[in-house]
Amino acid sequence: MAVLKLTRIGVAFLASGLWLAVSAGAQGAPTALEAAVKANYLYKFAPFVTWPAAAFATPTSPFSICVAGPDPFGRVLDDAVQGQTIDEHPITVRRLSASESIAGCHVLFAGASPTQSPTDALKAAAGAPVLTVTDQNLGGSGGMIQFVLQGGKVRFSIDAGAAEASGVQISSKLLQLAVSVRKAAK
């Protein structure tokens, strides 16, 4: 299995990011600060996750963060990952069309659009070693990680069972930072 290193900077970012206050914009639209925090989380989650070795074609193939549906991040996500690597994998960002395959994605942010619901994107990733992330409560069909706003702060909940079912292992350190964790059914 490919093991991604946990850096002190990553731990510090996640711990301090939990307390970064953001306010919801008009009609629930994310503010620029909220989008920036979420974009950085997408990249900072990776050191806390282990993917099977087969998830990478080569030891230096790109680590892909994919965005399905509308992109709430814009250049912020690209800027956050520019020049960054995870182990030997350079980080890339891909924005997927509704008909585009998730093949090669390691992190998939699934947003809602008129042509594809987040649930559709999540179904496409089912069983694949892809860390799925959403920013809305989709009941039992949400991503492995769901962004939630609590007290004006960006937080997240984790479905460890869904991650395990897809061959993705989430570090206990990240699980401890989550506001809630759904365990695998036994």
Overview of the structural elements:
The chain is α/β, with parallel strands linked by helices and 186 residues long. The chain has one domain: Response regulator (Rossmann fold). Helices cover 27% and strands 24% of the residues. Strands 3-4-2-5-6-7-8-10 form an eight-stranded mixed sheet, sandwiched between helices. A two-stranded antiparallel sheet has the order 1-9. β7 and β8 form a beta hairpin. It starts with 7 loop residues before the first helix and ends with a strand. The relative contact order is 0.17.
- Can you tell me the residue ranges where pLDDT is under 50 for at least 5 consecutive residues? 1-27
Spatial order of the strands forming the largest sheet: 3-4-2-5-6-7-8-10
Q: Helix coverage percent of residues?
A: 25-40%
Q: What's the mean pLDDT score?
A: 81
Which CATH first-tier class would you pick?
Alpha Beta
Number of domains: 1
What is the name of the CATH topology? Rossmann fold
Sheet with the most strands, sense and barrel status: 8 strands, mixed
Write a concise keyword list for the protein shown above.
8-stranded mixed beta sheet, 186 residues, alpha/beta, 24% strand, disordered N terminus
